[in-house]
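Continuing the batch. This is chain 6 of the set; chains 1 through 5 are on the previous pages. Same settings as before, nothing changed between runs. Recording input and output for traceability.
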Amino acid sequence: MTISIKNLDRICLCILVIVAFACGFWAVNDTIKKKRHLRQENDLFTHRSKDLNLADTNLQRLKKGLEATKSELKTLNEKIPETANIGGLLKKVDALMKSRNVEMINIEPLATVEEKLYTRIPIRMTFKGAFADIYGTLLDLETMNRILVMEKINISKTVNEQLCKVDLTACVFERSEPMVEKLRKLI
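Output for chain 6:
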């Protein structure tokens, strides 16, 4: 059985077409696999990028919350400090009195009262001035950045002058040690 050249050419041509088709299939399949792998990496990158942006947004929100908490804590520290700092408070009260044209007659810290979370320090003040000035002074004392609770107040008119005399007991506060430790743990 002899193979003719024509048949041999056909067989070679078929082998060549099959090899070309196999090489083409292999090249296309490899390209498809690389594109699929690249698409998966891009999807993964996009997903991680979104996660990173979300984490960044959450971090910014947490930072704002932390700043707000620090600000609230600072305000609380000013309103009820660790130490009474009576000297600083008395300077503020004296400045308020002078700005309102009220004359301080007497100021006397009384015995402190220990509470669970704070210490209450009563202060007895006696001063005199015009009623409108006294009213403004009392308003200033109530609205100062330090918590000052007025417990007893007696306003009377002086006999010789057209001024009012005020006898006032007000309390300032300082934090006790358990409260200070709790706040330090929060920070």
